[in-house]
Amino acid sequence: MEQRSTRNYTVAVCLSGTFGVIGIQHFYLGRYLEGICDLGLSITALYFFINGEVELAFLAMALDGIHTFIVTIMLLIGSFRDGDGHLVCYPGQRLNGEK
Questions:
Q1: Please, what's the b/e burial string for 85-94 (b: 16 or more CB within 10 A of its CB; e: otherwise)?
Q2: I need a labelling partner for 89 at 20 to 30 A (CA). Which of 1, 49, 52, 61 fits?
Q3: What is the Cα–Cα distance from 56 to 5, expressed in whole angstroms?
Q4: Whether 9 contacts 19, CB under 8 Å
Q5: Beta carbons of 81 and 75 less than 8 angstroms apart
């Protein structure tokens, strides 16, 4: 039987929608490696932009943006898991085996 995450759904969705490109939602959900990767992509994009490599900066930000979009959608539909492997459920979501 699947378990519900103890992390708050609303907080996770708000963090993902607001600060998603820097990976704050992953740190909140206990997915630290994914958070570091998101943060790294943002820093890489900023580095490329500062050094005049605008195309590479846009590529890095596009990858980060697409990843953030996918994570946010997965959170909204209740199919994203926290760092412990538990589902981050939207209010009223039923899990397998629940009545």
A1: ebbbbeeeee
A2: 61
A3: 37
A4: no
A5: no
Task: Retrieve residue 32's tokens.
Answer: 């630290």
pLDDT in tens, 24-45: 999 999 999 999 999 999 999 9
Give the Cα separation of 59 and 32 in Å (integer). Answer: 23
95 contacts 4 by C-beta, under 8 angstroms: yes
Whether 38 contacts 68, CB under 8 Å: yes
pLDDT per residue over 37-68, tens digit each?
999 999 999 999 999 999 999 999 999 999 99
Side-chain-side CA neighbours of 78 within 13 Å: the count stands at 11
